[in-house]
Amino acid sequence: MAPRRWISSAGMMNPLDQFVPRFDFSERHHIDIAAPARRIMNAVAAYRTQDDRLTRMAIRLREVPARLLGQTQGRPLDRSDFTLLERRDDTAIVYGLIGAFWQADYGLCAIPAPAIFQADRQDDVCKLVLGFTLHPGPGHRRRLVTETRVFCVTARARRLFTPYWYLIRPVSGLIRRRMLAAICRASEDRAGIGLSSL
Question: Is the CA virtual torsion 17, 19, 162, 120 positive or negative?
């Protein structure tokens, strides 16, 4: 599978391009929100997957093999495991994760700084970015887009990750949509009547 590159219809650079310009797998979802941009992006930054019951159940199910094998996973994988790579004012937030995600313990690698994420690697891991970008939406709303990209560093990593991606993708999509709905509720609840504060 040849790596792909995202090009916006407006010709603008996607902030994810700075960290994963070429990728093997991707997924995008969006929601329209009636709230100020700063409130929306602060809700993105504050969101934790542990706050959603279905997401917690899905993660626990994913970690059954580790428990059966007697491997100690510790706490479930959460958004706090991601490294903040960049926040562009109130328009974008990008998080990164490096690991061998098909392994029972996710094979996570430490990312103490964004430069470490961007550095070239030769080991059998994948680089994953989770981005949130804000765009004008219909009416007085703003459109929040979340995009996940995965770049497999080696051909072996791509072979190992491919079946895992297609296995988890339906659940991953559901989690992303629930995440966007929760961010929307948090943003609009805090906005009071909403449109008057835009």
Answer: positive
